[in-house]
Amino acid sequence: MALGEFELIDKYFTRPVRRAALGVGDDCALLVPAPGTQLAVSTDLLIEGRHFLSTVLPERLGHKALAVNLSDLAACGARPLGFTLGLSLPQPDEAWLEGFARGLFALAERHGCELVGGDTTRGPLAISITVFGEVPAGQALLRSGARPGDDVYVSGTLGDARLALEVFRGAVSLPGEDFDRVRRAMELPQPRVALGAALRGIATAAVDVSDGFAGDLGHVLRRSGVGATIEAEALPRSAVLARQPPEWQRRCTLTGGDDYELVFTAPAARRTEVEAAAREAGVPVTRVGRIDAEPGLRVLGPEGRPLAADLHTFDHFKTP
Ligand code: ADP
Ligand code: MG
């Protein structure tokens, strides 16, 4: 190892902290959540080959590793405070480390989220980040609050990340420019932190889309003890995805995954407040259905006919 463990941490992962009382370099970091707030904590583990492709640029990987964690804070309506980084590396490749750190800190700085500690070891490439955020006590958005009659919304667009993955797998081919756009969606997701915070006190439940819209909405439905009716045609999609065959559009939007958009519910009486929150956050939101008392997810296709359940409960693309 040309670069030792502590040199590596010093050179690439030690930055001065402003909000934390103590950052990298001691046995613990010290965070200072504002009085009256609760600490929101979430961890994601990313393994090469399973969660990202070896072809991804290190800068984009640094971005995505933090983005998926910030997305969890967003879904709770929490504001980021800081994060820790667990890093397993086959070798201390400086070009890789430099790119990875650049992507990681660019996103971290945009969200005022400081790196305060971590652990570094030699091993297969894997990245585990734990984020810490703060949320006014009792105001976190949970999966359990959806009520019959609520509207169901989704932010941004769905399905591009899955479309990009299918291009990598060779199942779909796209013109170069279209591929670049969906590849950005897959590799550079934008966590909806401002939207999550703006929805506190308005949304009744929220979740971020990591496994796919139908599956993640399903978590909200089960935790809330309700069901939902969704219009497949209403699910927002990019111009690139909208040019694909209808079957692909349906599957990518309903079961795609890796979108990191927010799916949330809100009472129908609060539509103007939802729109104001979306404007304030600068993120489009689309109303895609409603919450019902009857458990289960019903997806309506063209002309309001129910789609076969296997189109959204079973993912045909997914490899075991
Ligand atoms: P300890 O043995 O007490 O757990 P280490 O010797 O592993 O601490 O790490 C030294 C310091 O460097 C600690 O403050 C730790 O949080 C920090 N650190 C280690 N790896 C990373 C990393 N990848 N990113 C940020 N900080 C790190
Ligand atoms: Mg250690």
Can you tell me about this structure?
This protein is α+β, with helices and mostly antiparallel strands. Helix content is 35%, strand content 23%. The protein contains 11 helices and 10 strands. The protein has helices at residues 5-13, 58-76, 94-110, 160-168, 176-187, 193-198, 213-224, 239-242, 246-255, 271-281, 310-313, and strands spanning 37-47, 79-89, 114-122, 126-136, 151-155, 205-208, 227-231, 262-266, 285-292, 296-300. The strands form 2 sheets. Strands 6-8-5-9-7-10 form a 6-stranded mixed β-sheet, with helices on both faces. A 4-stranded mixed β-sheet has the order 1-4-2-3. Helix 2 (58-76) runs parallel beside helix 3 (94-110) and helix 4 packs across helix 5. The longest helix has 19 residues, at 58-76. It is globular. 44% of the residues are buried. The structure holds adenosine-5'-diphosphate and magnesium ion. The site of adenosine-5'-diphosphate has 13 residues, from helix 1, strand 2 and strand 3.
Helix and strand layout, with pairings?
Layout (H helix, E strand, L loop, with lengths): L4 H9 L23 E11 L10 H19 L2 E11 L4 H17 L3 E9 L3 E11 L14 E5 L4 H9 L7 H12 L5 H6 L6 E4 L4 H12 L2 E5 L7 H4 L3 H10 L6 E5 L4 H11 L3 E8 L3 E5 L9 H4 L7
Parallel strand pairs: 2-3, 7-10
Antiparallel strand pairs: 1-4, 2-4, 5-8, 5-9, 6-8, 7-9
Helix pairs in contact: 2-3, 4-5
Adenosine-5'-diphosphate binds next to α1, β2 and β3.
First-to-last CA distance: 37 Å
Oligomer: single chain
Q: Would you identify the regions where 5 or more consecutive residues have pLDDT less than 50?
A: none
The backbone outline, from C-alpha atoms, is globular
Q: Taking strands numbered 1, 2, ... along the chain, how are they ordered across the largest sheet?
A: 6-8-5-9-7-10
Mean pLDDT: 95
Q: Describe the biggest sheet?
A: 6 strands, mixed
Pattern of helices and strands? HEHEHEEEHHHEHEHHEHEEH
Computed structural class: alpha+beta
The radius of gyration computed from the alpha-carbon positions, rounded to a whole number of angstroms, is 20 Å
